[in-house]
Amino acid sequence: MQHTAVIALGSNLSQPAQQIQAALDELAALPACRLLQASSLYLSAPVGYTDQPDFINAVCLLATDLPPHDLLVALHGIESRFGRERSFRNAPRTLDLDIIDFDGTILSEEHLTLPHPRAHERSFVMLPLAEVAPDYHLPGYGRVAELAAALGNDGIRKL
Q1: In the beta sheet, which residues pair with residue 122?
Q2: Is the N or the C terminus of the chain less surrounded, counting Cβ atoms within 10 Å?
Q3: What is the pLDDT of residues 108-149, one digit of tens each?
Q4: 84 is catalytic
């Protein structure tokens, strides 16, 4: 059965724009997956730990036959191939791939919470998602275009 997953991408190390573009290619090449749409790239200031370079962010819609946990494992594999190190929370990274939503699934487990618990608070996720799917409904939070408008650009700049 085909599902739609919303994936957020972020990078602030090792030529971040190229990392995001290459990651989109990797997502498109995943078995049982098809890249439906990708946003523009956005420049944003770091959140949490601020003593690091700005991020390049994007969002994509991915059609997949994989269940959510298998998709998460695949995303972690891509992050690893890109040299992702998990040294501390909000650390600089070569690549960050997050499942924002998976067909409206509501899930709260140790390693996977859907929809992503902070996505609705982050302009660097909502603005790119509103660009490609303004009418998308994030379960429990509402229509993406309205969420993005309420957050404002918050220092986010489309490249």
Answers
A1: none
A2: N
A3: 998 999 999 999 999 999 999 999 999 999 999 999 999 999
A4: yes
